[in-house]
Design goal:
The chain is α/β, with parallel strands linked by helices. It has one domain (9-311, 394-499): Amidase signature (AS) domain (Amidase signature (AS) enzymes). It is 39% helix and 11% strand. It has 17 helices and 11 strands. The chain has helices spanning 8-13, 16-24, 30-48, 56-71, 114-121, 164-171, 188-194, 228-238, 256-262, 283-298, 314-329, 350-361, 364-377, 383-403, 429-433, 440-445, 474-492, and strands spanning 51-54, 84-87, 126-130, 177-181, 197-200, 221-225, 269-273, 302-306, 409-413, 449-456, 462-468. β7, α10 and β8 form a beta-alpha-beta unit.
Length: 508
Protein backbone atom coordinates (compact mmCIF):
# COMPACT_ATOMS: atom_id res chain seq x y z
CA UNK A 1 0.00 0.00 0.00
CA UNK A 2 1.34 3.41 -0.92
CA UNK A 3 1.93 6.22 1.53
CA UNK A 4 -1.00 8.51 2.33
CA UNK A 5 0.71 11.42 0.62
CA UNK A 6 0.67 9.71 -2.77
CA UNK A 7 -2.97 10.41 -3.62
CA UNK A 8 -6.58 10.48 -2.53
CA UNK A 9 -7.18 6.88 -3.65
CA UNK A 10 -4.60 5.75 -1.11
CA UNK A 11 -6.21 7.81 1.64
CA UNK A 12 -9.50 5.96 1.25
CA UNK A 13 -7.76 2.59 1.58
CA UNK A 14 -6.12 3.34 4.92
CA UNK A 15 -7.57 1.90 8.08
CA UNK A 16 -9.16 4.39 10.47
CA UNK A 17 -6.21 3.94 12.82
CA UNK A 18 -3.80 4.71 9.97
CA UNK A 19 -5.83 7.78 8.98
CA UNK A 20 -5.64 9.04 12.55
CA UNK A 21 -1.85 8.48 12.54
CA UNK A 22 -1.50 10.28 9.20
CA UNK A 23 -3.30 13.33 10.57
CA UNK A 24 -1.27 13.23 13.78
CA UNK A 25 2.06 13.24 11.92
CA UNK A 26 0.94 15.82 9.37
CA UNK A 27 1.10 13.61 6.29
CA UNK A 28 -2.61 14.15 5.63
CA UNK A 29 -5.23 16.63 6.75
CA UNK A 30 -8.79 15.91 7.83
CA UNK A 31 -10.09 17.90 4.88
CA UNK A 32 -7.99 15.88 2.43
CA UNK A 33 -9.31 12.66 3.91
CA UNK A 34 -12.92 13.86 3.84
CA UNK A 35 -12.61 15.06 0.24
CA UNK A 36 -11.05 11.76 -0.82
CA UNK A 37 -14.02 9.85 0.56
CA UNK A 38 -16.58 12.23 -0.90
CA UNK A 39 -14.89 11.82 -4.28
CA UNK A 40 -14.99 8.04 -3.90
CA UNK A 41 -18.71 8.17 -3.10
CA UNK A 42 -19.34 10.36 -6.16
CA UNK A 43 -17.36 7.91 -8.29
CA UNK A 44 -18.81 4.55 -7.28
CA UNK A 45 -22.05 4.97 -5.36
CA UNK A 46 -24.06 5.12 -8.55
CA UNK A 47 -23.24 1.42 -8.87
CA UNK A 48 -23.87 0.56 -5.24
CA UNK A 49 -26.63 2.81 -3.84
CA UNK A 50 -25.02 2.52 -0.41
CA UNK A 51 -25.89 6.11 0.56
CA UNK A 52 -29.35 7.62 0.81
CA UNK A 53 -27.95 11.03 1.75
CA UNK A 54 -24.45 12.50 1.43
CA UNK A 55 -23.69 15.36 3.84
CA UNK A 56 -20.79 16.95 1.97
CA UNK A 57 -21.02 20.43 3.51
CA UNK A 58 -21.37 19.10 7.05
CA UNK A 59 -18.47 16.64 6.66
CA UNK A 60 -16.14 19.27 5.18
CA UNK A 61 -17.04 21.82 7.86
CA UNK A 62 -16.18 19.31 10.59
CA UNK A 63 -12.92 18.34 8.85
CA UNK A 64 -11.83 21.98 8.50
CA UNK A 65 -12.63 22.58 12.17
CA UNK A 66 -10.46 19.59 13.12
CA UNK A 67 -7.56 20.90 11.01
CA UNK A 68 -7.85 24.35 12.58
CA UNK A 69 -7.95 22.97 16.10
CA UNK A 70 -5.01 20.65 15.43
CA UNK A 71 -2.99 23.53 13.96
CA UNK A 72 -3.72 25.55 17.10
CA UNK A 73 -2.26 22.77 19.24
CA UNK A 74 -5.54 21.60 20.76
CA UNK A 75 -5.60 18.05 22.08
CA UNK A 76 -8.19 16.13 20.08
CA UNK A 77 -9.88 12.75 20.26
CA UNK A 78 -7.75 10.04 18.56
CA UNK A 79 -10.39 9.61 15.82
CA UNK A 80 -10.97 13.33 15.25
CA UNK A 81 -11.11 13.89 11.50
CA UNK A 82 -11.75 10.23 10.62
CA UNK A 83 -14.97 10.08 8.56
CA UNK A 84 -17.93 7.88 9.44
CA UNK A 85 -21.20 6.90 7.77
CA UNK A 86 -24.42 6.34 9.74
CA UNK A 87 -27.21 3.85 9.05
CA UNK A 88 -30.42 5.69 8.21
CA UNK A 89 -32.29 4.22 11.18
CA UNK A 90 -30.25 6.48 13.51
CA UNK A 91 -31.65 10.00 13.86
CA UNK A 92 -29.43 12.91 12.84
CA UNK A 93 -30.29 16.57 13.38
CA UNK A 94 -30.21 18.49 10.12
CA UNK A 95 -29.96 15.36 7.94
CA UNK A 96 -32.83 13.26 6.55
CA UNK A 97 -33.66 10.07 8.45
CA UNK A 98 -36.02 7.71 6.63
CA UNK A 99 -35.34 4.20 7.99
CA UNK A 100 -35.45 3.19 4.33
CA UNK A 101 -39.22 3.87 4.22
CA UNK A 102 -41.52 6.15 2.22
CA UNK A 103 -43.47 6.80 5.37
CA UNK A 104 -40.55 8.94 6.64
CA UNK A 105 -39.46 10.35 3.29
CA UNK A 106 -37.99 13.83 3.74
CA UNK A 107 -38.16 13.80 7.55
CA UNK A 108 -35.34 15.79 9.18
CA UNK A 109 -35.12 15.06 12.92
CA UNK A 110 -34.77 17.95 15.39
CA UNK A 111 -32.22 16.06 17.51
CA UNK A 112 -29.29 13.65 17.38
CA UNK A 113 -29.19 10.12 18.68
CA UNK A 114 -26.82 9.71 21.62
CA UNK A 115 -24.29 7.82 19.52
CA UNK A 116 -24.36 10.62 16.92
CA UNK A 117 -23.77 13.17 19.68
CA UNK A 118 -20.70 11.14 20.63
CA UNK A 119 -19.44 11.02 17.03
CA UNK A 120 -19.83 14.78 16.81
CA UNK A 121 -18.14 15.29 20.19
CA UNK A 122 -15.15 13.30 18.88
CA UNK A 123 -15.24 15.59 15.79
CA UNK A 124 -15.65 12.77 13.31
CA UNK A 125 -17.00 14.04 9.96
CA UNK A 126 -20.33 12.37 9.13
CA UNK A 127 -20.30 11.51 5.43
CA UNK A 128 -24.01 10.73 5.23
CA UNK A 129 -26.76 8.21 5.85
CA UNK A 130 -26.61 4.66 4.50
CA UNK A 131 -29.26 2.55 2.84
CA UNK A 132 -31.03 -0.25 4.67
CA UNK A 133 -33.94 -2.64 4.54
CA UNK A 134 -37.12 -0.74 5.41
CA UNK A 135 -37.27 -0.28 9.19
CA UNK A 136 -34.38 -2.79 9.36
CA UNK A 137 -36.66 -5.62 8.21
CA UNK A 138 -34.66 -7.79 5.84
CA UNK A 139 -31.45 -9.68 5.18
CA UNK A 140 -30.50 -8.25 1.80
CA UNK A 141 -31.18 -4.47 1.70
CA UNK A 142 -33.74 -5.17 -1.02
CA UNK A 143 -36.79 -3.98 0.94
CA UNK A 144 -35.54 -0.37 1.01
CA UNK A 145 -38.09 1.99 -0.53
CA UNK A 146 -35.16 3.72 -2.25
CA UNK A 147 -33.84 0.75 -4.20
CA UNK A 148 -31.47 -2.09 -3.30
CA UNK A 149 -27.84 -1.70 -2.34
CA UNK A 150 -25.33 -3.77 -4.33
CA UNK A 151 -22.38 -5.77 -3.06
CA UNK A 152 -18.99 -4.25 -4.06
CA UNK A 153 -17.58 -7.74 -4.67
CA UNK A 154 -20.23 -8.44 -7.31
CA UNK A 155 -22.90 -5.83 -8.05
CA UNK A 156 -25.33 -8.58 -9.08
CA UNK A 157 -25.25 -9.76 -5.45
CA UNK A 158 -26.84 -8.49 -2.26
CA UNK A 159 -24.69 -6.87 0.50
CA UNK A 160 -26.63 -8.47 3.33
CA UNK A 161 -29.17 -6.77 5.51
CA UNK A 162 -30.63 -4.90 7.06
CA UNK A 163 -27.46 -2.80 7.18
CA UNK A 164 -26.16 -3.51 3.70
CA UNK A 165 -25.57 0.17 2.99
CA UNK A 166 -23.12 0.59 5.86
CA UNK A 167 -21.23 -2.61 5.02
CA UNK A 168 -21.12 -1.89 1.28
CA UNK A 169 -19.86 1.64 1.92
CA UNK A 170 -17.02 0.35 4.09
CA UNK A 171 -16.17 -2.53 1.73
CA UNK A 172 -16.10 -0.15 -1.25
CA UNK A 173 -13.77 2.33 0.52
CA UNK A 174 -16.49 5.00 0.53
CA UNK A 175 -16.11 5.25 4.31
CA UNK A 176 -13.51 3.83 6.72
CA UNK A 177 -16.08 3.46 9.49
CA UNK A 178 -19.85 3.11 9.67
CA UNK A 179 -22.58 2.64 12.22
CA UNK A 180 -24.95 -0.29 11.88
CA UNK A 181 -27.71 -1.77 14.00
CA UNK A 182 -28.19 -5.44 14.77
CA UNK A 183 -31.58 -6.87 15.77
CA UNK A 184 -31.06 -10.41 14.49
CA UNK A 185 -27.74 -10.17 12.64
CA UNK A 186 -28.01 -6.93 10.67
CA UNK A 187 -24.40 -5.91 11.36
CA UNK A 188 -22.79 -9.35 11.33
CA UNK A 189 -24.47 -10.99 8.32
CA UNK A 190 -23.69 -8.03 6.00
CA UNK A 191 -20.15 -8.11 7.38
CA UNK A 192 -19.80 -11.75 6.37
CA UNK A 193 -20.99 -11.28 2.78
CA UNK A 194 -19.06 -8.04 2.14
CA UNK A 195 -15.76 -9.04 3.76
CA UNK A 196 -15.99 -6.44 6.53
CA UNK A 197 -15.83 -6.54 10.33
CA UNK A 198 -19.22 -6.26 12.04
CA UNK A 199 -19.60 -6.02 15.81
CA UNK A 200 -22.83 -6.35 17.80
CA UNK A 201 -22.03 -5.10 21.30
CA UNK A 202 -23.62 -6.37 24.50
CA UNK A 203 -27.24 -5.25 24.65
CA UNK A 204 -27.44 -1.95 26.52
CA UNK A 205 -23.77 -1.04 26.13
CA UNK A 206 -24.43 1.42 23.26
CA UNK A 207 -27.38 3.74 23.81
CA UNK A 208 -30.56 3.11 21.82
CA UNK A 209 -31.74 6.69 22.36
CA UNK A 210 -32.39 8.06 18.89
CA UNK A 211 -32.59 4.70 17.13
CA UNK A 212 -35.90 4.24 15.32
CA UNK A 213 -37.03 1.13 17.13
CA UNK A 214 -38.01 -2.10 15.43
CA UNK A 215 -37.76 -4.54 18.36
CA UNK A 216 -36.73 -2.73 21.52
CA UNK A 217 -35.51 -5.79 23.42
CA UNK A 218 -33.28 -6.86 20.50
CA UNK A 219 -32.01 -3.72 18.72
CA UNK A 220 -28.34 -2.79 19.26
CA UNK A 221 -26.11 -0.32 17.42
CA UNK A 222 -22.48 -1.15 16.70
CA UNK A 223 -19.41 -0.65 14.49
CA UNK A 224 -18.91 -1.62 10.85
CA UNK A 225 -15.25 -1.43 9.82
CA UNK A 226 -12.46 -3.03 7.80
CA UNK A 227 -10.28 -4.06 10.75
CA UNK A 228 -10.88 -5.37 14.25
CA UNK A 229 -8.82 -2.55 15.75
CA UNK A 230 -10.98 0.04 13.96
CA UNK A 231 -14.12 -1.62 15.35
CA UNK A 232 -12.69 -1.39 18.86
CA UNK A 233 -11.79 2.28 18.40
CA UNK A 234 -15.27 3.17 17.11
CA UNK A 235 -16.96 1.09 19.80
CA UNK A 236 -15.17 3.09 22.47
CA UNK A 237 -16.49 6.33 20.93
CA UNK A 238 -20.15 5.33 20.82
CA UNK A 239 -20.38 3.12 23.92
CA UNK A 240 -21.07 4.04 27.51
CA UNK A 241 -23.95 4.74 29.86
CA UNK A 242 -26.80 7.03 28.82
CA UNK A 243 -29.44 8.19 31.30
CA UNK A 244 -31.88 8.66 28.39
CA UNK A 245 -31.91 4.91 27.68
CA UNK A 246 -33.55 2.92 30.47
CA UNK A 247 -31.78 -0.27 29.32
CA UNK A 248 -28.32 1.33 29.25
CA UNK A 249 -25.58 -0.47 31.19
CA UNK A 250 -23.25 1.42 33.47
CA UNK A 251 -19.61 0.32 33.33
CA UNK A 252 -18.03 -3.08 33.69
CA UNK A 253 -16.12 -3.23 30.39
CA UNK A 254 -12.41 -3.82 29.75
CA UNK A 255 -10.54 -1.83 27.06
CA UNK A 256 -11.62 -2.93 23.60
CA UNK A 257 -8.65 -1.38 21.81
CA UNK A 258 -6.09 -3.00 24.09
CA UNK A 259 -7.77 -6.36 23.53
CA UNK A 260 -7.77 -5.90 19.74
CA UNK A 261 -4.07 -5.09 19.78
CA UNK A 262 -3.12 -8.01 22.04
CA UNK A 263 -3.25 -10.59 19.22
CA UNK A 264 -2.66 -13.47 21.58
CA UNK A 265 -5.01 -16.42 22.07
CA UNK A 266 -2.75 -18.72 24.11
CA UNK A 267 -4.91 -20.59 26.60
CA UNK A 268 -8.19 -19.25 25.20
CA UNK A 269 -10.92 -21.89 25.09
CA UNK A 270 -13.06 -21.61 21.94
CA UNK A 271 -16.28 -23.62 21.74
CA UNK A 272 -17.53 -24.74 18.34
CA UNK A 273 -21.34 -24.74 18.41
CA UNK A 274 -22.49 -28.12 17.10
CA UNK A 275 -25.92 -26.81 16.12
CA UNK A 276 -24.44 -24.06 13.92
CA UNK A 277 -21.93 -25.73 11.63
CA UNK A 278 -23.47 -28.60 9.72
CA UNK A 279 -26.64 -28.93 7.67
CA UNK A 280 -27.65 -25.77 5.84
CA UNK A 281 -24.15 -24.27 5.76
CA UNK A 282 -22.41 -24.25 2.37
CA UNK A 283 -19.36 -26.55 2.15
CA UNK A 284 -16.89 -23.76 1.30
CA UNK A 285 -18.24 -21.57 4.12
CA UNK A 286 -17.64 -24.49 6.50
CA UNK A 287 -14.18 -25.05 5.00
CA UNK A 288 -13.09 -21.45 5.64
CA UNK A 289 -14.50 -21.74 9.17
CA UNK A 290 -12.52 -24.92 9.87
CA UNK A 291 -9.32 -23.39 8.46
CA UNK A 292 -9.72 -20.33 10.71
CA UNK A 293 -10.14 -22.53 13.77
CA UNK A 294 -7.03 -24.48 12.81
CA UNK A 295 -5.00 -21.25 12.71
CA UNK A 296 -6.26 -20.29 16.16
CA UNK A 297 -5.40 -23.73 17.50
CA UNK A 298 -1.89 -23.47 16.08
CA UNK A 299 -1.58 -20.11 17.85
CA UNK A 300 -2.32 -21.69 21.22
CA UNK A 301 -6.11 -21.64 21.56
CA UNK A 302 -7.96 -24.75 22.67
CA UNK A 303 -10.81 -25.78 20.38
CA UNK A 304 -13.63 -27.76 21.99
CA UNK A 305 -17.13 -28.73 20.91
CA UNK A 306 -20.16 -27.38 22.75
CA UNK A 307 -23.85 -28.07 22.36
CA UNK A 308 -26.55 -25.43 22.61
CA UNK A 309 -29.63 -27.58 21.94
CA UNK A 310 -32.18 -24.79 22.14
CA UNK A 311 -30.48 -22.75 19.41
CA UNK A 312 -32.50 -24.78 16.89
CA UNK A 313 -35.63 -23.05 18.18
CA UNK A 314 -34.16 -19.54 18.18
CA UNK A 315 -35.27 -18.64 14.65
CA UNK A 316 -38.91 -19.44 15.36
CA UNK A 317 -38.88 -17.60 18.67
CA UNK A 318 -37.24 -14.56 17.09
CA UNK A 319 -39.84 -14.34 14.34
CA UNK A 320 -42.54 -14.08 16.99
CA UNK A 321 -40.81 -11.71 19.41
CA UNK A 322 -39.44 -9.33 16.77
CA UNK A 323 -42.69 -8.82 14.78
CA UNK A 324 -44.66 -8.44 18.01
CA UNK A 325 -42.41 -5.64 19.22
CA UNK A 326 -42.30 -4.13 15.73
CA UNK A 327 -46.09 -4.00 15.42
CA UNK A 328 -46.19 -2.04 18.67
CA UNK A 329 -43.27 0.26 17.83
CA UNK A 330 -44.52 1.09 14.32
CA UNK A 331 -47.99 2.05 15.53
CA UNK A 332 -46.70 5.62 15.90
CA UNK A 333 -46.46 5.97 12.11
CA UNK A 334 -50.11 6.84 11.66
CA UNK A 335 -50.13 9.77 9.22
CA UNK A 336 -51.07 12.15 12.02
CA UNK A 337 -47.94 13.24 13.84
CA UNK A 338 -44.97 13.22 11.45
CA UNK A 339 -43.81 11.77 8.15
CA UNK A 340 -46.06 10.84 5.25
CA UNK A 341 -49.76 11.72 5.30
CA UNK A 342 -52.10 10.38 2.61
CA UNK A 343 -55.56 12.00 2.67
CA UNK A 344 -58.32 10.23 0.72
CA UNK A 345 -60.33 12.53 -1.52
CA UNK A 346 -63.73 11.27 -0.38
CA UNK A 347 -64.78 11.95 3.20
CA UNK A 348 -61.41 11.83 4.94
CA UNK A 349 -61.51 10.66 8.54
CA UNK A 350 -58.76 9.85 11.04
CA UNK A 351 -59.27 6.15 10.34
CA UNK A 352 -59.18 6.53 6.53
CA UNK A 353 -56.09 8.78 6.66
CA UNK A 354 -54.34 6.25 8.88
CA UNK A 355 -55.28 3.36 6.61
CA UNK A 356 -54.25 5.15 3.42
CA UNK A 357 -50.97 6.40 4.89
CA UNK A 358 -49.87 3.04 6.25
CA UNK A 359 -51.06 1.29 3.10
CA UNK A 360 -48.94 3.49 0.84
CA UNK A 361 -46.11 4.27 3.24
CA UNK A 362 -45.13 0.76 4.32
CA UNK A 363 -43.63 -1.87 2.00
CA UNK A 364 -44.69 -5.50 1.75
CA UNK A 365 -42.16 -6.91 4.25
CA UNK A 366 -43.04 -4.32 6.90
CA UNK A 367 -46.74 -5.07 6.45
CA UNK A 368 -46.05 -8.80 6.72
CA UNK A 369 -44.23 -8.42 10.02
CA UNK A 370 -46.81 -6.01 11.47
CA UNK A 371 -49.52 -8.55 10.67
CA UNK A 372 -47.52 -11.41 12.20
CA UNK A 373 -46.79 -9.41 15.34
CA UNK A 374 -50.32 -8.11 15.79
CA UNK A 375 -51.67 -11.65 15.45
CA UNK A 376 -49.16 -13.01 17.97
CA UNK A 377 -50.19 -10.35 20.50
CA UNK A 378 -53.93 -10.69 19.95
CA UNK A 379 -56.37 -11.92 22.58
CA UNK A 380 -56.40 -15.68 22.81
CA UNK A 381 -53.03 -16.10 21.09
CA UNK A 382 -50.64 -14.11 23.28
CA UNK A 383 -49.64 -16.98 25.56
CA UNK A 384 -49.52 -19.55 22.78
CA UNK A 385 -47.24 -17.49 20.55
CA UNK A 386 -45.51 -14.48 22.15
CA UNK A 387 -45.47 -16.03 25.61
CA UNK A 388 -44.07 -19.33 24.34
CA UNK A 389 -41.42 -17.50 22.32
CA UNK A 390 -40.24 -15.71 25.45
CA UNK A 391 -39.88 -19.07 27.19
CA UNK A 392 -37.69 -20.28 24.32
CA UNK A 393 -35.67 -17.09 24.70
CA UNK A 394 -34.99 -18.05 28.30
CA UNK A 395 -33.84 -21.51 27.20
CA UNK A 396 -31.44 -19.95 24.67
CA UNK A 397 -30.03 -17.72 27.42
CA UNK A 398 -29.52 -20.79 29.60
CA UNK A 399 -27.68 -22.53 26.77
CA UNK A 400 -25.29 -19.58 26.57
CA UNK A 401 -24.76 -19.58 30.33
CA UNK A 402 -24.03 -23.30 30.42
CA UNK A 403 -21.62 -23.16 27.49
CA UNK A 404 -19.68 -20.23 28.92
CA UNK A 405 -19.01 -22.20 32.09
CA UNK A 406 -16.51 -24.27 30.07
CA UNK A 407 -15.36 -21.93 27.23
CA UNK A 408 -14.28 -18.31 26.93
CA UNK A 409 -15.89 -17.65 23.53
CA UNK A 410 -17.96 -19.63 21.04
CA UNK A 411 -17.63 -19.77 17.26
CA UNK A 412 -19.72 -20.53 14.18
CA UNK A 413 -19.91 -19.47 10.55
CA UNK A 414 -21.65 -16.07 10.46
CA UNK A 415 -23.98 -16.78 7.55
CA UNK A 416 -24.91 -20.08 5.89
CA UNK A 417 -23.87 -18.97 2.39
CA UNK A 418 -22.03 -16.26 0.51
CA UNK A 419 -23.98 -13.35 -0.95
CA UNK A 420 -26.86 -14.50 -3.11
CA UNK A 421 -28.06 -12.73 -6.25
CA UNK A 422 -30.32 -9.69 -6.12
CA UNK A 423 -33.92 -10.91 -6.44
CA UNK A 424 -33.07 -14.56 -5.77
CA UNK A 425 -34.88 -14.83 -2.42
CA UNK A 426 -37.05 -11.73 -2.32
CA UNK A 427 -40.24 -13.75 -2.93
CA UNK A 428 -39.37 -16.48 -0.42
CA UNK A 429 -39.55 -15.03 3.12
CA UNK A 430 -38.50 -18.26 4.83
CA UNK A 431 -35.38 -18.59 2.67
CA UNK A 432 -34.56 -14.96 3.48
CA UNK A 433 -35.11 -15.46 7.22
CA UNK A 434 -32.76 -18.47 7.27
CA UNK A 435 -29.80 -16.16 6.55
CA UNK A 436 -29.88 -15.13 10.23
CA UNK A 437 -29.96 -18.62 11.72
CA UNK A 438 -26.47 -18.27 13.28
CA UNK A 439 -26.74 -14.64 14.38
CA UNK A 440 -30.17 -14.55 16.06
CA UNK A 441 -29.26 -16.42 19.30
CA UNK A 442 -26.96 -13.58 20.46
CA UNK A 443 -29.77 -11.05 20.08
CA UNK A 444 -32.18 -13.20 22.06
CA UNK A 445 -29.60 -13.50 24.86
CA UNK A 446 -28.25 -9.94 24.72
CA UNK A 447 -24.69 -11.23 24.33
CA UNK A 448 -22.05 -9.66 22.06
CA UNK A 449 -21.01 -11.11 18.71
CA UNK A 450 -18.46 -10.22 16.05
CA UNK A 451 -18.02 -11.32 12.44
CA UNK A 452 -14.70 -11.09 10.63
CA UNK A 453 -13.73 -12.33 7.14
CA UNK A 454 -12.66 -15.97 7.07
CA UNK A 455 -11.67 -16.08 3.40
CA UNK A 456 -13.13 -16.55 -0.06
CA UNK A 457 -15.73 -19.24 -0.71
CA UNK A 458 -18.05 -19.96 -3.64
CA UNK A 459 -17.62 -17.76 -6.72
CA UNK A 460 -14.70 -15.95 -5.07
CA UNK A 461 -17.04 -14.21 -2.60
CA UNK A 462 -16.36 -13.53 1.10
CA UNK A 463 -17.35 -15.80 3.97
CA UNK A 464 -17.33 -14.84 7.64
CA UNK A 465 -16.62 -16.40 11.01
CA UNK A 466 -18.60 -15.34 14.07
CA UNK A 467 -17.41 -15.29 17.68
CA UNK A 468 -19.76 -14.94 20.66
CA UNK A 469 -18.89 -14.00 24.26
CA UNK A 470 -20.74 -13.57 27.56
CA UNK A 471 -22.52 -10.29 28.22
CA UNK A 472 -20.08 -7.45 28.98
CA UNK A 473 -17.13 -9.57 27.82
CA UNK A 474 -16.92 -7.76 24.47
CA UNK A 475 -13.16 -7.44 24.92
CA UNK A 476 -12.80 -11.23 24.41
CA UNK A 477 -14.24 -10.83 20.91
CA UNK A 478 -11.73 -8.13 20.05
CA UNK A 479 -8.95 -10.31 21.41
CA UNK A 480 -9.81 -13.41 19.38
CA UNK A 481 -10.90 -11.37 16.35
CA UNK A 482 -7.71 -9.33 16.29
CA UNK A 483 -5.58 -12.44 16.63
CA UNK A 484 -7.35 -14.32 13.84
CA UNK A 485 -7.29 -11.28 11.57
CA UNK A 486 -3.49 -11.07 11.95
CA UNK A 487 -3.07 -14.79 11.30
CA UNK A 488 -5.27 -14.67 8.19
CA UNK A 489 -3.59 -11.56 6.82
CA UNK A 490 -0.24 -13.31 7.13
CA UNK A 491 -1.61 -16.19 5.07
CA UNK A 492 -3.25 -13.86 2.52
CA UNK A 493 -0.29 -11.51 2.27
CA UNK A 494 -2.26 -8.41 3.25
CA UNK A 495 -5.70 -7.04 4.22
CA UNK A 496 -8.67 -9.07 3.04
CA UNK A 497 -10.30 -6.27 1.05
CA UNK A 498 -7.14 -5.83 -1.04
CA UNK A 499 -8.40 -8.92 -2.86
CA UNK A 500 -11.75 -7.34 -3.82
CA UNK A 501 -12.37 -6.49 -7.50
CA UNK A 502 -12.27 -2.79 -8.41
CA UNK A 503 -15.61 -1.17 -9.14
CA UNK A 504 -16.08 0.38 -12.55
CA UNK A 505 -16.79 3.84 -11.22
CA UNK A 506 -17.93 6.88 -13.14
CA UNK A 507 -16.68 6.99 -16.71
CA UNK A 508 -14.64 3.79 -16.45
Amino acid sequence: MNSPASGSADLTRLSAAAMAAAMADGSASAEEIARAHLARIADVDGELNAFLHVSEDDALATARDVDARRAAGEELHPLAGVPVAVKDVVVTAGMPTTAGSRILEGWIPPYDATLVERLRAARMPILGKTNMDEFAMGSSTETSAYGPTRNPWDTDRIPGGSGGGSSAAVAAFEAPLAIGTDTGGSIRQPGAVTGTVGMKPTYGSVSRYGLIAMASSLDQAGPVTRTVEDAALLHEVIGGHDVRDSTSLDGGFASFTEAARLRDVKGLRIGVIEELEGEGFAPEVRARFTESLALLEQAGAEIVRVSCPNFRYALGAYYLIMPSEASSNLAKFDGMRFGLRVVPEDHPTAESVMKATRGQGFGAEVKRRILLGTYALSAGYYDAYYGSAQKVRTLVQRDFAAAFESVDVMASPTAPTVAFRVGEKVDDPMAMYMNDIATIPANLAGTPGISIPSGLAEDGLPAGIQFLAPAQADDRLYRVGGALEALLEDSWGGPFLDRAPELKGAGK
